[in-house]
Specification:
- It contains 11 helices and 18 strands.
- The chain is α+β, with helices and mostly antiparallel strands.
- Among the domains are: about 150 residues, no CATH class; about 70 residues, no CATH class.
- The longest helix has 21 residues.
- The structure holds adenosine-5'-diphosphate and magnesium ion.
- The site of adenosine-5'-diphosphate has 16 residues, from strand 8, strand 12, strand 13, strand 16 and strand 17.
Length: about 350
């Protein structure tokens, strides 16, 4: 039987859903947070006259048809003396980064996505360079800590969005409230203090006066484009905090043929098999590329629009180990069924590692 190897943290709901769906379809899911597969596991990377290969006593690597490189965690140290933990943890991290970088020589399977491609595609500027090369339009942008440059862009554009390289979360010590950095709209009235901007670079981009947002979940050769807007009319500045609002309207759409071809070209150029693409559409119908999240969330799309078989698509791709998979390569697995399952309840109840992105504010 084929197996699928999943690198994702224990509490990851996407990994949980896919592992469940694979097993419901008779495919074994080997789900592990890192390459340290447990206290009893022994693994080796070999280099000799025959070349480079890997071996593990915990699984038969030759039976793995796909590797879902969702979000490998750094392996922690094994049970050693406290003084040795840091040393051992660093060796494990070296072992893991060497193994993952080998890709096909580590596991000869479909990688979703290839670690080197994934790492490059985490870079928003590499994405924009690729978008430019394939002829996708995008709103002009600068990443800068130079207030004069930001002001000049603001004068040219009228309105800008300010965004961050990494979303940042913090929690109020007094109220317990969770806060996160988000997209901010800037206009001629906005203060752009030179000293504050100099302290920390940010991303500033022409704000597109949108008719709606588009999210395209690309799963191998299949694209699932959906538009997101307010039922009451108009678009959100940023749709993400509104995903569970009554007012949010999500609808499947067809992409213009030329845009679809360019998105496929973008995925090929970045060498990505999986990607969640954000686009915006202005009132004239012009589409602009914002970004691609190579391991973005996609199951919320099926939650909003149960007729779109995203869970089944991803499961079929991993089970068949090919990007040009047949949708019926696996059972008719639905995200809604997973959410009602005992497996999902277990996942929610499982202890979670502290979120390292969370800092505390007094
Ligand atoms: N230039 C822009 N014009 C209009 N809306 C934007 C623009 N940039 C971002 N947004 C909104 O903010 C959301 C988040 O921005 P995005 O570029 O996808 O960055 P990230 O998701 O990494 O924070 C987008 O999906 C969109 O709704
Ligand atoms: Mg986004």
């Amino acid at each position: 039987m084929q197996q699928v190897l999943i690198f994702a943290p224990t509490g990851d709901a996407h990994a949980g859903a896919i592992a469940w769906a694979l097993e419901a379809s008779g495919v074994e899911a080997l789900w592990t947070p890192s390459t340290r597969l447990g206290a009893q596991a022994r693994g080796s990377l070999m280099a000799d006259a025959d070349g480079i290969r890997a071996h593990s006593n915990a699984c038969d690597l030759s039976r793995i048809g796909a590797v879902w490189h969702r979000a490998p965690e750094l392996p922690g140290a094994a049970a050693t003396m406290p003084e040795d933990r840091e040393f051992a943890a660093r060796q494990w991290q070296g072992f893991q980064s060497n193994a993952l970088a080998l890709e096909q020589s580590f596991v000869d399977a479909l990688w979703v996505n290839r670690p080197a491609a994934a790492e490059a595609a985490e870079n928003k500027w590499v994405q924009l360079r690729a978008a430019h090369a394939v002829g996708l339009r995008f709103p002009e942008a600068i990443a800068s800590n130079d207030a004069a440059e930001v002001r000049a862009l603001l004068r040219r554009c009228g309105r800008l969005v300010f965004k961050q390289f990494h979303t940042y979360m913090w929690q109020s010590r007094s109220s317990g409230e969770l806060r996160s950095s988000d997209v901010v709209l800037l206009d001629a009235q906005s203060e752009l203090p030179e000293a504050a901007i100099a302290v920390c670079p940010g991303i500033y981009q022409r704000y597109i006066d949108k008719a709606y947002d588009v999210r395209v979940s690309v799963i191998g050769d299949r694209l699932f484009p959906v538009r997101l807007l307010r039922r009451g009319g108009g678009a959100y500045v940023d749709w993400r905090p509104h995903i569970r609002d009554e007012d949010l309207l999500a609808e499947p759409i067809e992409l213009p043929v030329a845009v679809e071809a360019r998105l496929r070209a973008l995925m090929a150029r970045l060498d990505l098999v999986l990607g969640c693409i954000d686009l915006v559409v202005d009132h004239a119908g012009e589409m602009y590329f914002l970004e691609v999240n190579q391991q973005g969330q996609f199951l919320f799309v099926e939650e909003l629009l149960p007729q779109l078989p995203l869970l089944r698509a991803m499961t079929s791709m991993l089970a068949s180990g090919r990007r040009d998979y047949a949708l019926d390569a696996v059972a008719d697995v639905r995200f809604a069924t997973y959410v009602r399952s005992e497996r999902y309840r277990h996942l929610l109840a499982a202890p979670r590692a502290a979120n390292p992105a969370l800092v505390y504010e007094s």
